[in-house]
Amino acid sequence: MSKALIIAEKPSVASDIAKALGGFKKLDDYFESDDYVLSSAVGHLLEIGEPEDEEVKRGKWTFAKLPVIPSHFAIKPIEKTESRLKLLTRLIKRKDVTALVNACDAGREGELIFRLIAQHAKARQPVQRLWLQSMTPASIRQGFASLRSDADMMPLADAARCRSEADWLVGINGTRAMTAFNSKSGGFHLTTLGRVQTPTLAMIVEREERIRAFVPREYAEIHATFNAKAGEYLGKWVDEKFKKNEDEHARADRLWDQGKARAIAEKCRGKTGTVEEESKPTTQASPLLYDLTSLQREANSRFGFSARTTLSLAQSLYEKHKCLTYPRTDSRALPEDYVGTVKATLGMLEETNAYGHLAMQILGKNWINPKNKRVFDNAKISDHFAIIPTAEKPKTLNELEQKLYDLVTKRFLSIFFPAAEFMQTTRITRVEGEAFKSEGKVLVNPGWLAVYGKEADTEEMGSLTAVAQGEKPKADPVEAKSLMTKPPARYTEATLLSAMEGAGKLVEDEELRAAMQERGLGTPATRASIIEGLILQKYIVREEKALAPTPSAFSLVTLLKGLGVPELFSPELTAQWENQLAAMERGKLSREAFMQGIVDMTRHLVQQAKGHESDTVPGDFAILAVPCPKCGGEIKENYKKFACGQCDFAFFKILASRQLSDLEAETLLQHKRVGPLEGFRSKMGRAFAADLILKEDLSIEFFWENQNSEAQDVQVNLEELTPLGDCPKCKNKVYELGAAYLCEKGMMKPRVCDFRSGKIILQQEINSEQMQKLLTTGKTDLLDKFVSMRTKRPFSAYLVVKKDGSTGFEFAPKEPKEAKDGKTPAAKKAAAKKTSVKK
What pTM was estimated for this model as a whole? Predict the structure, then answer.
């Protein structure tokens, strides 16, 4: 009896199909019934590459072997899943299997997974396509009743293969060409590129360049406290004629003229004002259900989870605990036939302590509306639907899994609750013709906020102190506060995921921008691995929650811009591909035409790299003000080095993963030494600080002032030095030596004590008087010239001795300002709160 072999993408889907169709027996890694054999892949089982007889074994990193354009693409098993591939091949070759059903995920990647398996097994059976948007038993049965023909799916299959082969061509040739370019001057400098990773890196570099180029501007805000009979309220001066302009830092409440701000404050101080007030009800709907990207953003913001950690946890909740739906999705809606499944899930939650009362309200008040397009909408679903809890009750979740499950479950519950209702009050108090704005927001009905424990609380939500009709409150005090504009923040994983998702906005061409509207850079399933890959390749580093580009990142972007291959670092490449692949899926572009365009682009990028040398790459490079120490010639910066134009003297700009600035290079050449400089990284990735020394032979080396006494041959006569105090670690004496303060036991061989404090910390000089104070009292004076390595902004702090004897920072507490009546604003606010009345 002949049978059809059904191949799903994942074992869980195969299990769902078996339950929906019925009559299956479970065998080893597959199911079988009278009509079907049913098994699955476990994601991608094969990868593409060069044919074995064309594959370059030696010399692949040289221009002589580039570009790599194989005559055809070979497919190779992925080693860790090879056993599953062998199972499917064996099932395809069974004599009773006379037809195949592609039940992989509905989309481009699902099509590719099946096609490669069938190609590898040399399948000759006719193929039909199961196309599912929902995994309910009814939907699965309906899908099998209306299987699509293989001919209908060929345009999608072509697009899937083209995407895969194009990524391979650009990735392999781009990486090998840039590696060959960077290795011309010796050594091996792996320089990886990718269609998604490189534009992502370019966004991070562009943001860092804006931060570094940012020049703070001083502005003023005018704050007033108004005294009414019922209590006090605060107001901020606003320019009612303000209109948005090209100045991104301009605001209605900002004044660039400090003198004008002080004059307004002086004019209004102690004067009475008239009050205009408008109160109107507003509503706020619950956020949409999670897709993977929005879940990763939220988990990063709330818990500090990396994108990879969130995906791993969600995958565990899906596969191991079966309490979440499939997480690798870019959809935020549910199928229209999913109402019954939603009710079953709510029924399970109704029996839990944590969510029972919330699920009971939804079911009891019949808040599930099948016509609500914010929740149920087939048009908003691609390969998969939104992430929600399943009807399976989780049993043994660890702490991190529980946090993520709680995040998803509360979002799921909240979307069925009514909108939150507020009373929004806007008050303008006019004093001497100047407008001061006050706002209050009162939560009237929490609606969906009740899921997160919010209740109607006028005090907590910021109601305004009532003002009687005709009352004229007095403005006192009125202060002009001097503030500074801030540079854009570095990307965090949360904000970078958003930027990748919305990268289409950066594309100028309207048609291409529309092509990227639904996809962005990467997919929800790949964005986490792209970020981790950039970290692994040392293009970016994590600094607390922020992602900072390394000098290698700047170097790569400079190189690609200089070589004139913007398609490799701008989102336009992805936009062009998506536009063309979409046309291919509609049958309006041939596979051959698309791939010829990719081959032409690949040849172009390799040719551009071949045609330049390091010193011919265009860029915004400097000319040093200090002459060459070897011949007195002019030293110019180029892509990789600071090099003399008249002799062979040159040195690399990047040393130990830190790039020298023009000023640092000039200081090194002029004084034969610069430092101590922070931000170097060892081969193990550890940060360190050191001086750079220009030696007599004009080579450059690192130098530490006796930081490692085993590596130094410096003889120190302590009798000639004056001790500054007792070492906080071992109670021996601390001395000033070179660029550091050292314990005498740290100068011994072998080193006994590791206490060391630099004389310059974050650009703040620590003189001997302050170090003496630190050692005797445990704390320096308040020092105000530290500069943050992360934000590049100055800050003030005390240098203190910590419990373990090392040094650290202590920040001065912000002291509340006293008003004329001797009361602090906090005390006034507390007093006003007692008399506050909801208007």
Answer: 0.73
